[in-house]
Design brief:
The complex is a heterodimer of chains A (271) and B (335).
Chain A: H1 2-5, E1 23-32, E2 35-45, E3 50-54, H2 61-68, E4 76-81, E5 84-85, E6 88-91, E7 94-97, H3 100-107, E8 110-113, H4 125-135, H5 141-154, H6 170-182, E9 188-192, H7 200-215, E10 219-223, H8 227-233, E11 236-241, E12 244-250, H9 251-256, H10 261-270
Parallel strand pairs in A: 3-10, 3-11, 8-9, 9-10
Antiparallel strand pairs in A: 1-2, 1-4, 4-5, 6-7, 11-12
Helix pairs in contact in A: 4-5, 4-6, 5-6, 6-7
Chain B: H1 13-16, H2 20-25, H3 28-33, H4 50-72, H5 78-85, H6 88-119, H7 124-139, H8 142-150, H9 152-155, E1 158-159, E2 168-169, H10 170-173, H11 176-202, H12 205-213, H13 218-248, H14 260-271, H15 274-303, H16 314-323
Antiparallel strand pairs in B: 1-2
Catalytic activity (chain A): a polar amino acid(out) + ATP + H2O = a polar amino acid(in) + ADP + phosphate + H(+)
GO molecular function, one term (chain A): ATPase-coupled polar amino acid-transporter activity
Protein name (chain A): ABC-type polar-amino-acid transporter
Chain lengths: 271, 335
């Protein structure tokens, strides 16, 4: 847990200039059949930074997020996480896709939270949390269990360790999913519309957990429609439209005073 | 049945006689409000189902007639049945049947999982191989397959398996039992692979993604996340397959494998008590399928862990039946 203890700088200016960005995406392209979903996206996310990806559905923001942990393969460009190219290794002028084992090792360092939680329904909450630490990190069971219980405490669900996911509300399930991702002690957390499938009154609990996580210095990339959350918690906001990062800037500025016409139109429509 | 109905006294006036102008005046609901009865004075009477009594009595009569015939017709030979029910050779035959069922299902399940994973492979050659296997074994009668394996020596007198120095006499190697195991097991694998494939495909796509995002390998994801959830879909038809397999093993009597049916046949070939011995075999088949059905229920219950509702056990079902006061008069009530 050394990472947690180091105080992370919250703004880009505070960063040690010698440090690599946590995520660097360069001209990322992706198409599904004839449909071009990503048309060359560039983005850098600094350590400890919280970046929200906003934009209309189908604009490619979720696909971009899924490329960062190689759930989607890219058709062009490169993504680095902590200085390592995700999913590929370079041989001369070629990028060769890595083997299953190597990709899995990279993914253990990147936590992901899904819109539909995707908890394992046949396992209890505690089993959900310790499954990957036991199997992928080969940790001793008592170590993983201790950390899992601490994380459940942190997300306010200490009493649900023995419950099955289906007996929990959507908000509780999503908090378990966040704890499950954190149990791997990731360097980076990806959130794919974490509150979109929740009843309105359950959104708050999940956002609170995410806010606390951001304050603890975790690097986070969040695809969201929660403009309030983006404005308050994010350091920067990226507006996606038609497969491109159209506008990137400080959260407050992009949301309250967008420069680009498409951003203005989108924000006017969602407000 | 209407005798038990207690009618409230003092029926509303407009119900007893024609009241033309009022009936046209407003909708039916409004008239109800004006009948002057307080809700507390009315008794609720469920709809009656006289048809249920008629069919129930008719079926009970048929059952009684059948039972009477079964016990009065001396040709059933119940005393002979009683003697042979615990006969040693019948018992040995039953053991052979149980062994065949267990081993063939084991072959079927293991090979079926492999074939199902092959069917879902990204490699088109692997996919086609599994597809061809399934179409061949599902497309030919299992009796024909059994005879094929039994007569393998006619096709390949010497089995070398392509390994230098290995040459086995097919006639000696393929015993009736081995032919039965190969025929039934390989055939079962084709059916099991379809069941397993349906189970794997029933698991939400997000489950595999979540496991992958956590850093579990494809093998770990399949073993720890996908297959346990697929079990809910795989277990019920597998139970049916096992029960079906128990009965299908009777086919091996054509290969002179001394299973339950063939043991009975050997006995009645000597003493001509055909019907009683077939009844003996049937009783044992029925007994084992009953045990398997009960086992299937509890296995299914175990694999639906994490579900909001578990299916009730027979004891729970019985209690529930007692709680519904008149099963013949009302519909199924939920606790």
């Amino acid at each position: 847990m050394t990472r947690r203890e180091t105080a992370h700088p919250r703004t880009v200016a505070d960063l040690d200039s010698g440090q690599l960005p946590m995520v660097r995406a360069e001209k990322v392209r992706k198409h599904f059949g004839p449909l071009e979903v990503l048309k060359g996206v560039d983005l850098e996310v600094e350590r400890g930074e919280v970046v929200c990806l906003i934009g209309p559905s189908g604009s490619g923001k979720s696909t971009f997020l899924r490329c960062i942990n190689h759930l989607e393969t890219v058709d062009g460009g490169r993504i680095w996480v902590d200085g390592q190219v995700v999913g590929y290794q370079r041989r001369g002028r070629k990028l060769l896709e890595l083997g299953d084992r190597e990709i899995c090792r990279q993914r253990t360092e990147i936590g992901m939270v899904f819109q539909h939680f995707n908890l394992f329904p046949h396992m209890t909450v505690l089993q959900n949390l310790i499954e990957a630490p036991l199997r992928a990190l080969r940790e001793p069971r008592d170590e993983a269990t201790a950390r899992a219980l601490a994380l459940l405490e942190q997300v306010g669900l200490a009493d649900k360790a023995g419950a099955y996911p289906r007996h929990l509300s959507g908000g509780q399930q999503q908090r378990v999913a966040i704890a499950r991702a954190l149990c791997m002690r990731p360097k980076l957390m990806l959130f794919d519309e974490p509150t979109s499938a929740l009843d309105p009154e359950l959104v708050g609990d999940v956002l609170t957990v995410m806010r606390e996580l951001a304050e603890s210095g975790m690097t986070m990339i969040v695809v969201t429609h929660e403009m309030g959350f983006a404005r308050e918690v994010a350091d920067r906001v990226v507006f996606f439209d038609a497969g491109q990062a159209v506008e990137v800037g400080p959260a407050q500025q992009v949301i309250t005073d967008p420069r680009h016409a498409r951003t203005k139109a989108f924000l006017a429509a969602v407000r | 049945m209407t005798g038990s109905t207690t009618r409230p006294e003092g029926r509303p006036a407009h119900d007893a006689g024609p009241s033309g102008p009022r009936r046209e005046a407003g909708p039916a609901g409004e008239r109800e409000h004006t009948d002057g009865m307080a809700a507390d004075d009315l008794t609720v009477v469920s709809k009656r189902h006289p048809g249920r009594w008629v069919t129930a009595i008719a079926l009970l009569l048929v059952a009684a007639a059948t039972l009477r015939s079964v016990f009065t017709n001396p040709r059933f030979g119940w005393d002979v049945v009683n003697t042979y029910l615990r006969d040693v050779s019948i018992g040995r035959g039953l053991l052979v049947t149980l062994e065949l069922t267990a081993i063939c299902m084991a072959i079927g399940i293991i090979l079926g999982v492999v074939l199902a994973v092959m069917r879902l492979s990204a490699n088109p050659v692997v996919r086609s191989a599994a597809f061809l296997y399934v179409s061949f074994f599902r497309g030919t009668p299992v009796l024909v397959q059994l005879l094929f394996w039994y007569n393998l020596a006619a096709l390949y007198p010497q089995l070398t398996f392509g390994i230098p120095g290995v040459s086995l006499d097919a006639n000696q190697l393929i015993t009736p039992i081995l032919a039965a195991l190969l025929g039934l097991g390989l055939n079962e694998a084709a059916y099991m692979s379809e069941i397993v494939r349906a189970g794997i495909q029933s698991v939400d796509h997000g489950q595999g993604e979540a496991a992958g995002a956590l850093g579990l390998t494809k093998m770990q994801t399949m073993r720890r996340v996908i297959l346990p959830q697929a079990m809910r879909v795989i277990i019920p038809p597998t139970g049916n397959e096992t029960i079906g397999m128990l009965k299908t093993t009777a086919l091996v009597s054509v290969l002179a494998v001394p299973d339950l049916l063939y043991s009975a046949q050997i006995l009645y070939a000597r003493n001509f008590q055909t019907i009683p011995l077939l009844i003996v075999a049937s009783i044992w088949y029925l007994a084992v399928t009953t045990v398997l059905t009960i086992g299937q229920f509890y296995v299914e219950r175990r694999f639906s862990r994490g579900n909001r509702t578990l299916p009730p056990t027979p004891v729970q079902q019985f209690r529930q039946l007692l709680r519904t006061h008149t099963p013949m008069a009302t519909g199924r009530s939920t606790p």
